[in-house]
Amino acid sequence: MAAQVLRRKTLANLSAHSSSLFSKSSFSLQRFISTLVLGEHEGGSIKAQSLSAVVAAKSLGEDNSISMLLAGSGPSVHEAASVIVADSDTFMYPLAEPCAKLVHLIQQKGGYSHIMATSSSFGKNILPRAAALLDVSPITDVIEISGPQLFVRPIYAGNAFCTVRYTGAGPCMLTIRSTSFPVPLTSANSKSDVAPISQVDLSTFGEDKVCKSKYVNHTSQDSERPDLSNARIVVTGGRALKSAENFKMIEKLAEKLGAAVGATRAAVDAGFVPNELQVGQTGKIVAPELYMAFGVSGAIQHLAGMRDSKVIVAVNKDADAPIFQVADYGLVGDLFEVIPQLLEKLPEKK
């Protein structure tokens, strides 16, 4: 197997130079590290999750040469060492087949030691297919990078962590949780060099005659609320809200707090809100400064998506609800009484 799971207690005894598990290619990997980051962009801007991938790539080593691949067109990225642009109508929409083939083409020319993407729908769609083309085994949902070949990822819905050492042939392919690699704030006086941009030679890129997927349409919510994945405050509602009409209370509260709106899978399945607002193991992973949960029982799948939040506030009628086991502040009460009181006491957002 390309990935070998190690017990946590053996980490103190690991030595990259003395371990017999490293192959000859592993030693050359330590001497020279280069990373290709799959960048996601929309509306002419790089998404914040992709910048987190650049932060994660820097953890691989001080001498790591980082390049970001933009399939389509977009602005330069100051945090990356260089930007590679593949400008073609083929990549107008991020379909897995052409994008994975593009990664394969660039890897053949660039010979990167690592290829990295975020654990978003974008990364999960493209990277596994690209890994299959390159005949390597990817490591998913990385939350900590201990070395060029040593990674930590959650298992059992986040209830345990395993340390994985990659011993396979290059490149080492990873998806990372953007919430575990926050982008540092830059001051107004800070200076950054403009990243050089190079175009991909697509003359040898042949389009597949039969594509198994095709672009249908793209829908998004027109809202002034912050993006759920990167919001400082998230207000989440569960099935206890009982209807889409009642869920509007959550939206009103979020509007007053300048927060993003989240939902449990049960609320999404009931049709209260669209599925892009789902938080949890099969939804979005969030780690805001403040996470407020109303009528959320705290199923293990939901906790996997928000347990890294800095402060968790829970309101539930059931005093034995699992959500209270991870909450910093808990209130046993009826959300239909608590939320109106909060809306009355909170000032209007300026």
What this model shows, in words?
Helices cover 25% and strands 24% of the residues. With 350 residues, it is α/β, with parallel strands linked by helices. The termini are far apart.
- Strand percentage lies at 15-25%
Counting H and I runs of at least 4 residues, what is the number of helices? 9
Give helix % range.
10-25%
- Rg over CA atoms, rounded to whole Å, is 22 Å
Structural class by helix and strand composition: alpha/beta
- Give the end-to-end Cα distance, rounded to a whole number of Å: 56 Å
Order of helices and strands: EHEEEHEEHEHEEEEEEEHEHEHEHEH
Overall number of strands: 18
Question: What's the pLDDT, averaged over the residues?
Answer: 81
Poorly predicted regions: 1-31, 73-81
Gross morphology is elongated
Write out the strand line-up for the largest beta sheet, numbering strands in chain order: 8-12-7-2-5-6-13
Largest sheet: 7 strands, parallel
Q: Can you give me a brief rundown of this structure?
A:
This protein is an alpha/beta fold. The chain has helices at about 25-30, 50-60, 95-110, 120-135, 245-255, 265-270, 300-305, 325, 335-345; strands at about 5, 35-40, 40, 45, 65-70, 80-85, 115-120, 140, 145, 150-155, 160-165, 170-175, 195-200, 235, 260-265, 290-295, 310-315, 330.
Features:
350 residues, alpha/beta, seven-stranded parallel beta sheet, five-stranded parallel beta sheet, disordered N terminus
Blueprint of the fold:
Elements: E1 3-6, H1 24-31, E2 34-39, E3 41-42, E4 45-46, H2 48-58, E5 65-71, E6 82-86, H3 96-110, E7 114-118, H4 121-134, E8 139-142, E9 144-147, E10 150-155, E11 160-166, E12 172-176, E13 197-199, E14 233-237, H5 244-257, E15 260-263, H6 265-269, E16 290-294, H7 300-303, E17 311-316, H8 323-326, E18 329-332, H9 335-345
Parallel strand pairs: 2-5, 2-7, 5-6, 6-13, 7-12, 8-12, 14-15, 14-16, 16-17, 17-18
Antiparallel strand pairs: 1-11, 3-4, 9-10, 10-11
Helix pairs in contact: 3-4, 5-9
